[in-house]
Amino acid sequence: MSKRTVELDLATPGIDAQGRPTRVPVGLAEPDLAGEHMLINLGPQHPATHGVLRLVVELDGETVVRVIPHIGYLHSGFEKLGEYRHYNQIIPLTDRTDYLAPMANNVGVALAAEVLMGIEITPRCKVLRLIACEMSRIISHLVWLGTTSIDLGAFTPFLWAFQQRERIYNLQEMWTGARLTTSLTRVGGLMADIPDGFAAGLREFTQTFPKTLDEIDRVLTRNAVWAGRTQGVGVISAADAVSHSLSGPMLRASGVPYDLRKDKPYLDYETYDFDVPVGEHGDVYDRYLVRLEECRQSNRILAQALERLPDGPINVADPRVILPPKSRAMSDMEAMIYHFKQVMEGVKAPVGEAYVGIENPKGELGNYFVSDGTAKPVRWRIRPPAFINLSVLPKLAQGHLLSDLIAINASVDIVMGEVDR
Amino acid sequence: MNPSVDALRATFSTAIGRAAVARDGETLVCVRAEQLREVMQWLRDAPGERYDYLVDVTAVEYRDRERPLEVIYFLRSLERRVDLRVKVELDPRGELAVDSVVPLWPGAEWLEREVYDMFGITFRGHPDLRRILMWETYAEGYPLRKDFPLRGRFSRAEQVRQALAANPEAHYSLEELSIAEAYDELPRDMKERLERGERGKLPHSE
Fold first, then answer.
1. Which of A84, A250, A375, B152 is the 20 to 30 Å CA partner of A222?
2. Is B15 on the interface with A (CB under 8 A)?
3. Does B28 contact chain A (CB < 8 Å)?
4. Do the chains contact at A391 and B107, CB–CB below 8 Å?
5. Is the pLDDT of residue A3 over 50?
6. pLDDT at residue B3 in the model
7. In chain B, which stretches have pLDDT less than 50?
8. Which tens digits make up the pLDDT trace of A369-384?
9. What per-residue confidence (pLDDT) applies to B163?
């Protein structure tokens, strides 16, 4: 192939089909593309949108001019359903909101109901619930880490992360009988105590898990491609993060040191020794660093919780709140009456309202109950961290390339079950 | 009780209604709807208050139909680590509208859209008040209102019929179609349907 044909194949400007040089008319050399904006529809069925999120993107070339998110494809009306259910019947609904951290959601809604009813849970229950929360944080962050690394082209960390996540899922299944629909808590206690072998299994996990984190750290943190794709992308300043109501790692990556576990402690978090990682630049890379470090800190908390796990009952000793054992309900008149009243009428809450926010993996998960004195809430509101964090996506993505939009969307860490509820 | 309540009473006197401590220990205070924006601005900017973080916005309708609807703002001062809950009561027989707080906290944008979508409460001055969880042509009303039946107003058959009859292009708003410059190429019947206005207006057609 001669030099000339190669040039022809590449449609070299200034040469006609016969290979003779031609005069290029001035002003027609490049078509004017500046005014042409393209509309791209991303999702709702797209692997990089992490669920049924639909983004309508206005593009100028490859640059994102505007993002219009469309949500609601997974809307199930949980808050409406909650108004027709007893407080304990609401707990299964929370499995399905942030389904990457079901146990933490169970804890959040139980805490809110207990604050509303003025119930003080037992010391063992507190530690077990804290273990549930931190296990959830680790699996949620591992899913985030795995899927985000796939979005950015790194396949290996995905496999490592999911391998470790599987170990926690096995423990979760051991404890609750379910891998996803855990329904772990009850108002005033837990569905079940941990089984034999659980503590040993979790201890083994806490000892071996940091090795995987180190490996992921080694593969990604100083990886030129990873840093190039994430540093300086999707930046939000601390002031903007606060005014946009961001929470969780999204807020802390921008340099705002606010963590409910430290600043509004629940479940005695103030008595544990752990650090809250805070970012500096508020970009995708810092969000990655914050989440990676949070996994380490959660692991530390889990180890401490296992050390101090006290003996004793998991449920409060209040027959109006906690079901009597089935054997007693079958043989003892009083127990049977309590059993009947709880199943048929539910646990009554006093008139009033209560909001309890917990630090979920995605951010501040709030549960807000308003009661009129009956066994069913007048209003159950979930403050969905993923929904509020997602609302800043159009601002984050503006002016970036389309490929960066994928990285930014991944870094928000959304879960559509919670965004749409 | 949170000292901000006394400061509010000293500054706004009649605009401030009852105050109470909720069962979770946080203070809630009622504010007259007309003065909401001023009060919120003051709570955000006054040196001793500095409620710079809006945790949540939501609404409550009670089972007792005589009771007013409440719009609830969960405020937090990140530097002082203090929370305050501000309520606005709306008479269900009157106009369900309050001033938007999006100019104060941009994070309220989606939260107010959700309250509008679920309760039908309008936020005056909101930059983009559209339905958010339900689709734009949703015609059954406001799901979290107490007069809304749990299974929806339409029968399941009607819901399925509407879902199947929906035109795929109708999943784009007119604004989005105008970005693509696709509006002129649409079939006439779809143009007419879009122009009938269920999906808003073209920005340049006014």
1. A250
2. no
3. yes
4. yes
5. no
6. 86
7. 199-206
8. 999 989 999 999 999 9
9. 76
Identify the pLDDT of residue A361: 93
Domain that holds residue B16: 4-134
Helix/strand/coil (H, E, C) string of chain A? CCHHHHHHHCCCCCECCCCCECCCCCCCCCCCCCCCCEEEEECCCCHHHCCCCEEEEEEECCEEEEEEEECCCCCCCHHHHHCCCCHHHHHHHHHCCCCCCHHHHHHHHHHHHHHHHCCCCCHHHHHHHHHHHHHHHHHHHHHHHHHHHHHCCCCHHHHHHHHHHHHHHHHHHHHHCCCCCCCCEECCEECCCCCCCHHHHHHHHHHHHHHHHHHHHHHHCCCHHHHHHHCCCCCCCHHHHHHCCCCCHHHHCCCCCCCHHHHCCCCCHHHCCCCCCCCCCCCHHHHHHHHHHHHHHHHHHHHHHHHHCCCCCCCCCCCCCCCCCHHHHHHCHHHHHHHHHHHHHCCCCCCEEEEEEEEECCEEEEEEEEECCCCCCCEEEEECHHHHHHCCHHHHHCCCEHHHHHHHHHHHCCCHHHHHC
Q: How many domains does chain B have?
A: 1
Give me the CATH topology for the region A78-382+403-420: Cytochrome-c3 Hydrogenase; chain B (1.10.645)
Percent of all residues in chain A with a pLDDT value above 70, rounded to a whole number: 92
Quick check: A381 and B81 CB within 8 A?
Answer: no
B170 touches chain A (CB under 8 A): no
Q: Does residue A116 have a pLDDT over 70?
A: yes
Q: Give the residue-averaged pLDDT of A56-84.
A: 89
Q: How far is B187 from chain A (nearest CA, A)?
A: 19
Domain ranges, ordered by start, for chain A: 1-30, 78-382+403-420
CATH number of the domain where residue B95 is located: 3.30.460.80
